[in-house]
Amino acid sequence: MTNHLVLKKADFFVSAAQPVAVADRYPQNVFAEHTHDFCELVLVWRGNGLHVLNDRPYRITCGDLFYIRAEDRHSYESVNGLVLHNIIYCPERLKINVDWDDLLHSVRDAGKDPRWRLSSQGMAQARQLIVQLEHESVKPDALSLCLTESLFLQLCITLRRHRYQTQDAAGPDSSEILDLLMAALGQSLETPFELTQFCQQHQVAERHLRQFFRQQTGMSISQYLRQLRICQAQDLLRNSELLVGNIATRCGFEDSNYFSVVFTKETGMTPRMWRQRYAVDV
């Protein structure tokens, strides 16, 4: 495995007793692959970028949420106005008697996708808690340390309550149009997505929705969906033995030649070159 950067507690926490810290990224720039000797929550507010987690690429944008363990390898590439918060924490320093493992570590079990989405309501509540957490976490006194952990617990519960995965049939428990659109796009990786039909169903003006989506994500709706499909194709090329034509179908491309053209334009490599590259690395 190629050597990579390891981020250390001493560089991010003000004391050996501090359990949680807030690292804002306004914006998040390209960042090489790294691990940590602490854990973190990543919450994206706006813009977009490519988040590569344990060799799997994810096109991220507003509302995306990741639970990152210390041993996870991740990096940021192809960023475009990407704004996020890293809530970093040391599990061994958490003192409140709750099931932290259930709140923070079990979310990746049972084959769950490590990328979650947070509803608009959840994002608003989380932002308020993060502002308080950022203010309190830098204070070294015992009461501030206790309050910091208490705010972190509230944040974890809020994330747990309002998160969803786009591939789940139930989708988000929200009437916010952006949440519903993101869920619909996440469920359309293999099938065509009809924006006009979606707008009619939810009684929203298509032009307004297109403008609002671009404002929040820095991409058009079609660009975002294409990026989701390319990321899925990259993962399948690396981790499956499916033929390129079958992968094209699994990623919503009816024509394998067109899929190859789009994939090459987005990644700089043909699908076969991508597969051969990682076949050597494995």
Primary descriptors:
9-stranded mixed beta sheet; globular; 10 helices; alpha+beta; 44% helix; 282 residues
Short description:
With about 280 residues, this protein is of the alpha+beta class. It has helices at about 100-105, 120-135, 140-160, 175-185, 195-200, 205-215, 220-240, 245-250, 255-265, 270-280, and strands at about 5, 20-25, 30-35, 40-55, 55-60, 65-70, 75-90, 115-120, 165.
Topology:
Blueprint: E1 5-7, E2 20-25, E3 31-36, E4 39-53, E5 56-61, E6 64-68, E7 74-89, H1 100-105, E8 115-118, H2 120-136, H3 142-162, E9 163-164, H4 177-186, H5 195-202, H6 206-217, H7 221-239, H8 244-250, H9 256-267, H10 271-281
Parallel strand pairs: 1-3
Antiparallel strand pairs: 2-7, 3-7, 4-5, 4-6, 4-7, 6-8, 8-9
Helix pairs in contact: 2-3, 7-10, 8-9
Radius of gyration, whole Å: 20 Å
The average pLDDT value, as a whole number, equals 90
Q: Name the helicity range.
A: 40-55%
Uncertain ranges: none
What this model shows, in words?
This protein is an alpha+beta fold and 282 residues long. Helix content is 44%, strand content 22%. Strands 1, 2, 3, 4, 5, 6, 7, 8 and 9 form a nine-stranded mixed sheet that branches. A hairpin with a 2-residue loop joins strand 4 and strand 5. Helix 2 packs antiparallel against helix 3 and helix 8 (244-250) packs across helix 9. The longest helix is centred in the middle third of the chain and has 21 residues, at 142-162. It is globular and about 60 Å long.
